[in-house]
Amino acid sequence: MLKLHHHPMSAASRFVRLVLGEYGERAEYLEERPWEKRRDFLALNPAATLPVMLEDDGPAIVGATVAGEYLDETRGVFQRDKRLLPEKPLERAEVRRLTEWFLGKLDSEVTRYLVRERVFKLEMSADAGGGPPDASAIRAARANLKHHLRYLGWLAESRDWLAGPRLSYADLAAAAELSILDYLGEIPWEKEPAAKDWYMRIKSRPSFRPLLTERVRGLPPVHHYVQLDF
Amino acid sequence: MLKLHHHPMSAASRFVRLVLGEYGERAEYLEERPWEKRRDFLALNPAATLPVMLEDDGPAIVGATVAGEYLDETRGVFQRDKRLLPEKPLERAEVRRLTEWFLGKLDSEVTRYLVRERVFKLEMSADAGGGPPDASAIRAARANLKHHLRYLGWLAESRDWLAGPRLSYADLAAAAELSILDYLGEIPWEKEPAAKDWYMRIKSRPSFRPLLTERVRGLPPVHHYVQLDF
């Protein structure tokens, strides 16, 4: 049995949850607030980052891309045309590049700031860094988001799915990030119709449903968050 | 034939060079100054990061971990007991966790700052961010380095190689980062004898030699940089 330490507003955690959903894998989900630096959690992952996955209480599988590779090696390999990493090394390299682009670059330039300022700071103690949001960080993240949406729109326009003809980790990585930004009402969808069309397609997949029903206490999502046709 | 766009002071580039060295792969090395945002380079990698690898002028293989996975799939798989990623999924997950720890966390908390402030700013134009070093960034990086050296020392003490009984990507990732920090004289080796012993072992490998002969213009390495027994 798989176990996943996650947080609903951690895009990296959502990525792994989408992969598990696509592969029809059941897992036990344990919510973790990484900023509390719980001793047992640090023992699993001294970097104190999410997600952390375990299989049958074995050693920790740390981080979204590491978990993604593990799931490809232990599940994806049996999925034939539903496998979320292609077979050919160069195609795998393109999927991995974009997966890193979204979970790394987009996350560190946009999502991480907005989630920290608009969500986590409300839940954090003053010691852990809680307090009022930093308006300049929010402004910078929103400016960066525009460039990322343009790139996403360009990918969505030029390819069936973001990394090529088939759904892949790249789509799930982008969707994980965007689903959080969309919850927060941060995405000007009308400016990027191709990106919107791609997101509607991925949002209607069964793997996405659990994400749409989650709520952050005291912070409801924008009204179109759950609408499949928005 | 492989081609690698790299920079001598890019730890991520050094990681791929060490992998190629361990596998005895020849490659053409092209030095790139990513802050110049050369148009042809941006076409290969819109993130403008190093390294970027190409095989037979095929599509770009972007980033150290993506290149590492590609080399494992196309070279490592034929290397038997010299393969730098183990065979078992859980062992691969541990190697990947540490590879990300060094190329991601250590790099972004330590190496990137020190290289930017002490090396790149000397070469950059004022437009690109050049100028005098920021003393507070250097101070913060040095403070972070202490924690990283302690963790590295602990790994080196508890295992033959950093991720287990065999040399792996984790060692090459750590060595890539440390070799740059050592060039700059930033490592208080005397405080972490187990880390020093591990570094002496990896430094004496033939794959390491090309790194030891490189020089940054106007910035010679500390005197022990090339000594195998220091």
From TrEMBL, chains A, B:
GO BP annotations listed: glutathione metabolic process
Keywords from UniProt, A to Z, are: Transferase
User: This protein's superkingdom?
Assistant: Bacteria
Give the Pfam families listed for this entry. GST_C (PF00043), GST_N_2 (PF13409)
Q: Which GO terms describe its molecular function?
A: glutathione transferase activity
Q: Does the keyword Transferase apply?
A: yes
Which residues does the UniProt record annotate as the domain GST N-terminal?
1-79
Residue ranges constituting the GST C-terminal domain according to the UniProt record:
88-222
SUPFAM superfamilies, A to Z: GST C-terminal domain-like, Thioredoxin-like
**Subunit organization:** Homodimer.
Name of the protein described by the UniProt record = Glutathione S-transferase
Which organism encodes this protein? Aurantimonas manganoxydans (strain ATCC BAA-1229 / DSM 21871 / SI85-9A1)
